[in-house]
Amino acid sequence: xxxxxxxxxxxxxxxxxxxxxxxxxxxxxxxxxxxxxxxxxxxxxxxxxxxxxxxxxxxxxxxxxxxxxxxxxxxxxxxxxxxxxxxxxxxxxxxxxxxxxxxxxxxxxxxxxxxxxxxxxxxxxxxxxxxxxxxxxxxxxxxxxxxxxxxxxxxxxxxxxxxxxxxxxxxxxxxxxxxxxxxxxxxxxxxxxxxxxxxxxxxxxxxxxxxxxxxxxxxxxxxxxxxxxxxxxxxxxxxxxxxxxxxxxxxxxxxxxxxxxxxxxxxxxxxxxxxxxxxxxxxxxxxxxxxxxxxxxxxxxxxxxxxxxxxxxxxxxxxxxxxxxxxxxxxxxxxxxxxxxxxxxxxxxxxxxxxxxxxxxxxxxxxxxxxxxxxxxxxxxxxxxxxxxxxxxxxxxxxxxxxxxxxxxxxxxxxxxxxxxxxxxxxxxxxxxxxxxxxxxxxxxxxxxxxxxxxxxxxxxxxxxxxxxxxxxxxxxxxxxxxxxxxxxxxxxxxxxxxxxxxxxxxxxxxxxxxxxxxxxxxxxxxxxxxxxxxxxxxxxxxxxxxxxxxxxxxxxxxxxxxxxxxxxxxxxxxxxxxxxxxxxxxxxxxxxxxxxxxxxxxxxxxxxxxxxxxxxxxxx
Amino acid sequence: xxxxxxxxxxxxxxxxxxxxxxxxxxxxxxxxxxxxxxxxxxxxxxxxxxxxxxxxxxxxxxxxxxxxxxxxxxxxxxxxxxxxxxxxxxxxxxxxxxxxxxxxxxxxxxxxxxxxxxxxxxxxxxxxxxxxxxxxxxxxxxxxxxxxxxxxxxxxxxxxxxxxxxxxxxxxxxxxxxxxxxxxxxxxxxxxxxxxxxxxxxxxxxxxxxxxxxxxxxxxxxxxxxxxxxxxxxxxxxxxxxxxxxxxxxxxxxxxxxxxxxxxxxxxxxxxxxxxxxxxxxxxxxxxxxxxxxxxxxxxxxxxxxxxxxxxxxxxxxxxxxxxxxxxxxxxxxxxxxxxxxxxxxxxxxx
Amino acid sequence: xxxxxxxxxxxxxxxxxxxxxxxxxxxxxxxxxxxxxxxxxxxxxxxxxxxxxxxxxxxxxxxxxxxxxxxxxxxxxxxxxxxxxxxxxxxxxxxxxxxxxxxxxxxxxxxxxxxxxxxxxxxxxxxxxxxxxxxxxxxxxxxxxxxxxxxxxxxxxxxxxxxxxxxxxxxxxxxxxxxxxxxxxxxxxxxxxxxxxxxxxxxxxxxxxxxxxxxxxxxxxxxxxxxxxxxxxxxxxxxxxxxxxxxxxxxxxxxxxxxxxxxxxxxxxxxxxxxxxxxxxxxxxxxxxxxxxxxxxxxxxxxxxxxxxxxxxxxxxxxxxxxxxxxxxxxxxxxxx
Lengths: 621, 351, 337
Known about the structure:
The structure holds 3 protein chains of 3 kinds.
Chain A: H1 21-48, E1 80-85, H2 100-109, E2 114-116, E3 123-125, E4 133-134, E5 140-144, H3 161-170, H4 181-184, E6 207-211, E7 214-218, H5 224-229, H6 240-247, E8 264-266, E9 278-279, E10 283-288, E11 305-310, H7 315-324, E12 329-330, H8 337-344, H9 347-350, E13 353-357, E14 360-366, H10 376-385, H11 388-393, E15 401-403, H12 436-445, E16 458-463, H13 468-481, E17 486-491, H14 493-501, E18 510-517, H15 524-531, H16 550-561, H17 565-582, E19 585-596, E20 601-602, E21 605-606, E22 612-613, E23 619-620
Parallel strand pairs in A: 1-11, 1-12, 16-17
Antiparallel strand pairs in A: 2-3, 4-5, 5-7, 6-7, 8-10, 9-10, 10-11, 13-19, 14-18, 14-19, 15-19, 20-23, 21-22
Helix pairs in contact in A: 10-12, 16-17
Chain B: H1 13-30, H2 32-61, H3 67-71, H4 78-87, H5 94-108, H6 121-156, H7 161-175, H8 178-189, H9 212-246, H10 249-256, H11 261-289, H12 293-299, H13 304-313, H14 317-345
Chain C: E1 5-16, E2 19-31, E3 36-40, H1 47-55, E4 63-71, E5 74-75, H2 81-87, E6 92-95, H3 99-102, H4 109-120, H5 125-138, H6 144-147, H7 157-169, E7 175-179, H8 187-204, E8 207-212, H9 215-221, E9 224-229, E10 232-238, H10 239-242, H11 249-256, H12 297-301, E11 307-310, E12 313-315, H13 321-336
Parallel strand pairs in C: 3-8, 3-9, 6-7, 7-8
Antiparallel strand pairs in C: 1-2, 1-4, 4-5, 9-10, 10-12, 11-12
Helix pairs in contact in C: 4-5, 4-7, 5-7, 7-8
């Protein structure tokens, strides 16, 4: 009797209706699962959304380069554009500028002696009035500069030839440390052979300024590369009296106070400090240079302002923002391969996308200074076995570019490889997938009886983030096919260079994630520094295979002296062949860089600079 | 009576006030709480020194970029590199480098210059700190306003439909990675790339002094994304705390006194339940002041977190050291502040 | 004279995942104005739940309460919550076992007492504060105008309990329910607190329900005694009769288990064999039968009713009355020798 509960309580808080215990647990479980499933579904839906559903196959011809647009000669004046950047410039100092992004800004704000129109690789005079006049013996080069070109505030005065002399000289100072000064300008009489150790003022007597608009360069030997290098930002004029105090610092601070001669300038305050226009890591504001005169310049400069937004680290978000129109172009990072494929499937969007060759190649460097890659046949085995198609796939597949077979890439049409005779790929394989049989044949020639490598484990240092890390995995797997055991260390990209691959003492057997791009449209810039024996340095060496072939070195010295364009093409084309045959470095892709524009602007590209947006020619529609 | 002020006679008003103030000051300085705070501050300084030394050593020992290389361009020569290394003090032994760094820091509050773009680290951090603070405080307000009431309601109505929904929902919010959540938020609600054009998207940040309305709009999505997992965590924690507190004996006494249930919950219950929550919130907030790296990255907000992220990717040591020090400073300070606040909130705590 | 507080046939059970917990099964109690009812029993006997139910503090969603609690003519079981708020703390007050955990640790004791006053009376803070100081003085706390701003943890155990008593009595309630108020205190402090309670009872004529497991406390303070087991009242009588002729086997067990200072040291302490029953699965018949040394066959089948054996003595047991009285007297004389 007493075990049954009494009913009859009239308390208004009496028990609510409740499910019995086991049912309640199931309900809870279902609720949790339902919420989780919803979230996963949402994510999947969103990732798929925005991109066309038909984007499963690769489209377009393998690595097809897009024809550049027509030159924008009649654009609407005014307006502004936004360019998204994942990274940042190293410096605004034209004497320091070295990478594609630096050039994007420099060529809109500075006027080197020579430059380029948009969408063209042809060098034309910029600050200079005409192409350089070279003496018969090739040792004297004369350039006249325009008058009426003024610096932006706070300098304001007119540019003189002495300013160009100062600009080139300071490039050799240790506290400016221009990256190519010793490569191309050391031929000047009196130029230091190496960057100075202290920020002392460098004086190059070989640069003569007989009057305010004339420069006479006296060289120690003829040099076609010097003439080509006159297009580099190092020749952009710098006002000495204004820059001197900044150039006296342990590391020059001129970049924070830079003045402009081009149509645009980095916004600065009254004292000349550009912190108003450049917040590192955040933005760069380019505004019109009020002291620039359109009559002295071939650039139209339609836009009023250009706003670079930095920190766009997610390529999908970046791409969609450009397609949606909240940004107008990508400045330094490519859209992701998935987004590219979906854009190519959309006829309207396709018109806004351009693939421009980066002019250079990626290659796998084999350390020739120590075993086993000091043996030619072993290197040739590697060149045969590497599956370049799979390696290219790690960077997006055919969209990424063309499989490389030598170093001077097709963007040098008529200036490089074919001019030097050309030949078909010495390490060809079906579908570029690698040829194990031929690799083994080479290994047999090297003395490995059954065609499989036997020996110590080879070391490799690679990128620790994709796609470099994936490429390295492919390389290791390919090598394993012929018996190599590979030990791979993954590090930060910067570390890979500065602590390992560029330090001969520490360099592993293989550096798979290296590459080299042109400095300007001359084949010497592709081959000299990366493969000349004299480039090998105890630190920061860029000759990663440590190739030091006396015959090739001598040929390079001779070819450097040539000034005739055709002769240079011929000579360097032949050198390309020889370097390729050493298999010290195995090139695998000539990349194209995709630049996407919004529908609001007229696309114009620096085809000579990886297809970066050419803001001096872009206008709003 | 011992503590009465001495009679100071007519005109003793201001003098008496001064005397009272002096006594108060002596009381404060000799109180155990004051001595505790001083002790903690001194230990905090020691901790900061240790943190800075550790960061220095780690960066020195483990493979990372050679700073001289970063500055010397693509094809430099050894002399130039040596010159740069010398100007950066990199050719000195590591303890000397550390000593010079600390000397600069303590005497001039100089945190060095980025190897990457030669910008002064201190300037960059001070410029970006307000931005990170805006993000952190906004998210803080949001997660407290959302998490705490939800936790209280769930505790008061345990096992109701609302309780089950919020607890399972909070599990999902806690498990969702911030970066993923940020991307989903952008793809759903960003007014450029989202399905529903509601809020400004990634990269839309403008300083509040420049455009207050634009600033507010650009912060909405980041605030919610950053607050999400915290709100969920706090909802669960508050729920547990409140439920535990409501089963305490003094709650029973409060009810026995005839207080309304509302007063029992909100005056007696929450006062005891939320004390640890307040201190925990202070610590979480201080951690965020060191930079909400993932949120700042996905929404492209130029804060200290973003700065640290870029520095790490570039293997740029001085900013890394600077941001680590700042972060450590905030956390250590918050710990001290929170402990002191706790002493005020809970009289049983004695130092 | 009708009792101030009368509990009839009170049943309280809680529905849990493991089954229904029958905390109180037909309790019968009454308290006269100005007298002290001692409720004695071990843990789980239902004494605390009964007290809390009087206060209306067991009204959980999973609780089933039936029966009658007549207080001054009104049935508290049926009283709505908002009306209970004016009874709780004002007319019936309760103090608890551990004053350290039962007082709010983060509020000063003066604040807590003032709150009790201001909840039920519309007086100013200053006024209430004065009354609080007086209440503290009354319960024997020295320097009450200083102590009023102390936190509970700053007081000793005895002081805390006095403060709790002050808080309970400041509004002069008709009934004070004390749930084991001395269990957590030292023996000497215990005596002081019991003295205090007795003094206040005499002064204000407060009815007291003293819940305890300690027969010594009963002997000190109670006028009437109720013995509870397994949620039932099984013996109810005056203090005097309980300690001369106890008539319940359970009561005998309780008394036997108190060791005596003057007796020779026994080999083992006397205890009641077995364990308290599970309140979910109660034994059939008499709940004490598994542990009763005098168990009979009928005890397993039939639950004994609380019946009068003598005027003023109610017992629930199947044993014959004379037999019970004989055993009871014998037990007392053995222990008094």
